[in-house]
Write a structure and sequence with these properties.
The chain has about 220 residues and is mainly α. The chain has a single domain, classed as MetI-like fold. It is about 80% helix and about 0% strand. Helix 5 packs across helix 6. The radius of gyration is 21 Å and the shape is flat. The C terminus is likely disordered.
């Protein structure tokens, strides 16, 4: 067996372990918190008072306009200067969640606004409140429209978690860095890490395809419900 292939075989489990124990939970937690935040920010942008809408726009502007890496550095390395000390994983989750929330708030706002006005009027004609119309009529349709964009954001986040290595979170890339520091084979280790990210993304892309096909076949809302 060639030496490079032997090295890849030996390092495969440590990299996969880092992915399963750190990368996957980091991605799931950050995306769940980020999408929940995005939903409420989008609602504030659409229906909140002027001051709250302005605050939401400022948050979106700030986190979409600055690099994610800089945001992570500010949270982990900068906040201790004002007395806020976070462990690496918590800092990474906060940073990724805020970034996901900023980007996807505009996605959710856009799909809600894309629903025809007649859907709102039909709901109001049935004596629904705005909250009821949003929950029962608008959001089921908006979810189907937003699914491709949210799925793409989730896949992108899997790869973005490699930035957590700068916070010393022992995810896939950090594990590859540590092994490369001992073996002096960065090309092999970083290539293997890239292949693992590619495998994760490929599985998620397939899942995205199946979800979109399912939601395309079955309407999420029908007037009879």
């Amino acid at each position: 067996m060639p030496a490079w292939l032997h090295l890849m075989a030996q390092s495969l489990w440590p990299l996969l372990y880092a992915g399963l124990v750190f990368t996957v939970p980091l991605t799931l937690a950050s995306f769940a918190i980020g999408v929940a935040l995005a939903f409420w920010v989008a609602l504030v942008r659409l229906f909140g008072p002027r001051w709250a809408s302005a605050a939401a726009r400022f948050y979106i502007w700030l986190f979409r306009g600055s690099p994610l890496l800089v945001q992570l550095f500010v949270i982990f390395y900068g906040l201790p200067n004002v007395g806020i000390v976070l462990d690496p994983l918590t800092a990474a989750i906060i940073g990724f969640s805020l970034n996901v929330g900023a980007y996807n708030a505009e996605v959710i706002r856009g799909v809600i606004e894309s629903i025809p006005r007649g859907q709102w009027e039909a709901a109001y004609s049935l004596n629904m409140t705005r909250a009821q119309a949003l929950r029962r009529v608008i959001l089921p349709q908006a979810i189907r429209v937003a699914l491709p964009a949210l799925s793409n954001a989730f896949i992108a986040l899997v790869k973005d978690t490699s930035l957590a290595a700068v916070l010393t979170v022992p995810e896939i890339f950090q594990a590859a860095q540590r092994i490369a520091a001992v073996t002096y084979e960065p090309l092999i280790l970083y290539s293997e890490a890239a292949l693992i990210y590619l495998a994760f993304s490929s599985v998620l892309s397939r899942a995205q395809f199946r979800l979109e096909a399912r939601f395309g076949r079955h309407a999420l809302f029908s007037p009879g419900r």
